[in-house]
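Issue: ligand-bound run for pyridoxal-5'-phosphate - logging full I/O for the record.

Environment: standard queue, default settings, no custom constraints.

Inputs:
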Amino acid sequence: MSVSSNIQQIKSVLPPQVRLVAVSKFQPVDKLQEAYDAGQRIFGENRALEMRDKHGQLPEDIQWHFIGHLQRNKIKYIAPFVAMIHSVDTPELLEDIDRAAEKAGRVIPCLLQLHIASEVSKFGFNPEEALEYLASGRWQQLRHIRICGMMGMATFTDDQSQVLGEFRQLRECFDRAKERWFAAEEDFCELSMGMSDDYPLAIQCGSTMVRIGTAVFGSRPVSL
Ligand SMILES: *Cc1c(COP(=O)(O)O)cnc(C)c1O
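Outputs:
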């Protein structure tokens, strides 16, 4: 299947409120161009320098979403153009992004990444930690970031009930945060969950953005 028919097929099953983030990490630029030519405008990358390089080679109207663990010293490479950072996993990172955004003269939309999977290796706040951080009010001083919602990754497993349980946990945390701190904020509306293998379940649980790589581009090359 071609990239363009994969995109058409996925979009045909997405409800209208769910956006597709085409996860293009490790894919060469011509594959991204193919997706662009098929109408795709949101791309997800997980390495700052790779994203910066691709940004320089592809059309200006692409929205670049950062979805990986972001090192502090790399924020500056993407701050001038990144459309959203899904993977804010500590309060300190959010503060660093705020400073980089100020230097770039921008406000950067961010999502708090929650650790919902049973695997130990994945980054993110525990749901309680995220709510405690929001309760601390520290983020309210940050003028150059905007918290727009939450992101998470479910455990890599065939057990659908486990995956559903994890997505529901993320959804509940999002709902509690919305109710307590963002009820009047229209921008706090994004729930980034669902990948190639589990996006139908994520949509059932209220996802607004699915991050899909393999099902769009095929398997990833080992390196560029
Ligand atoms: C790679 C990646 C994806 C996409 O994974 P696929 O299984 O290829 O769809 C989604 N989210 C994050 C954070 C990723 O790193």
